[in-house]
Amino acid sequence: MSDPFGPRQDRLLAALDERGLGAMLVTGSANVRYLTGYIGSNGIAVIGAGGRVLITDSRYAVSAAEQVRGAEVVVGRRDLLADVAAAAPAIAAGRPLGIEADDLTLARHERLVEMLPGVEMTPTRSLVEELREVKDDAEIATMREAAAVVDRALASVLEHGLIGRTERDVAFALHGAMLAEGAQEPSFATIVASGPRGARPHHVPGPDPVPADTLVVIDMGAVVDGYCSDMTRTVATGPLPARLAEIYAVCLDAQEAALAAAAPGMTGADLDAVARARIAAAGYGECFGHGLGHGVGLVIHEQRRPEGRDGDHDRARHLPRGRGRGADRGPDRVGGGGRATAVAHLQAADDRRMRSTRGRRP
């Protein structure tokens, strides 16, 4: 497989040139990894027309030399800022230095201003994140495996049943099963919410036993080679009251309608509206208070969200065209009267179609 890091850096340089910037100070850990391959906890990349460096400290000297591609590794002091100040002017080549406004703290920015009195620093927002939105084939394959890990882990835990086990025990079992199936770690804290607790979107699994004849919402994800998956499933523990069966069917219908309608180039608001209309037509519109989904990749919640509510900054943005992008799609909670169902899985868009990153549809 060809090295992706040089081309990624080249795309960043093109974006910098369009904005009149000479270099970029990359401090967000996911962005540093995306551009250089470095996965340590203390690293800053400076990428510009005058050079490309990854600055870290002595704790990561060996691992950085093994991981980093397309950039020179500079081993400096743990704080890194003095080494950044020494390298940045030449790399920026007399032009402004872009900084990540969403990541660089005010305190560190103030120190850099003191260290670089002759360098203009320009805040940027989501510059590298926008490059990350479009996934290449290797990224999609990795995310597909992260989704498959979750599939296998959930199946193995469900084989032993849920009734009588505490939510916490089930969550712990899912955690262990994901690791056994090849995950580095969960991509977020696993949610197991039974009965009325399923209506709490970020419920913390507790000591309550899972009862029979109800629904259990399970929200889980895995990290494989740095890339995340995110999946939500609703499991029945026996025959269901008619209303619970109905709202599950409404939720699933809305998700499948959105998946069928999704295409590169449409806005997030338009896609959200497809699912929202199905739920509203069934009489549960007021119970669907959140958005349809979110971007997934090196972090569990990447910036683009296909949401349609007032005030969501992504509502008028278009799904990007390119080789692919990962998204977690599905009405995450739909219900009423203290009960809810949820179903979501990963989907990728390319220039031709939407395609699942997992082997089975719900």
Features:
Creatine Amidinohydrolase, Chain A, domain 1, 6-stranded mixed β-sheet, 10 helices, elongated, Creatine Amidinohydrolase, single chain, alpha+beta, 4-stranded antiparallel β-sheet, 362 residues
Could you please describe the fold and organization of this structure?
The protein is α+β, with helices and mostly antiparallel strands and 362 residues long. The chain has two domains: 5-131, Creatine Amidinohydrolase, Chain A, domain 1 (3-Layer(aba) Sandwich); 134-356, Creatinase/methionine aminopeptidase superfamily (Creatine Amidinohydrolase, Alpha-Beta Complex), CATH 3.90.230. 35% of the residues lie in helices and 21% in strands. It contains ten helices and 18 strands. The strands form five sheets. The protein has a six-stranded mixed β-sheet with strand order 4-3-2-1-5-6, with helices on both faces. A four-stranded antiparallel β-sheet has the order 13-14-17-18, sandwiched between helices. It has a three-stranded antiparallel β-sheet with strand order 7-10-11. Strand 10 (222-224) and strand 11 form a beta hairpin. The longest helix is centred in the middle third of the chain and has 22 residues, at 137-158. 45% of the residues are buried.
Report helical residue fraction. Answer: 25-40%
CATH class of the largest domain: Alpha Beta
Q: Strand sequence of the main sheet, in spatial order?
A: 4-3-2-1-5-6
CATH topology of the largest domain: Creatine Amidinohydrolase
CATH superfamily of the largest domain: Creatinase/methionine aminopeptidase superfamily
Question: Biggest sheet, open or closed, and with what strands and sense?
Answer: 6 strands, mixed
Instruction: Give the helix/strand class.
Output: alpha+beta
Question: Which overall shape is indicated by the principal axes computed on the Cα atoms?
Answer: elongated
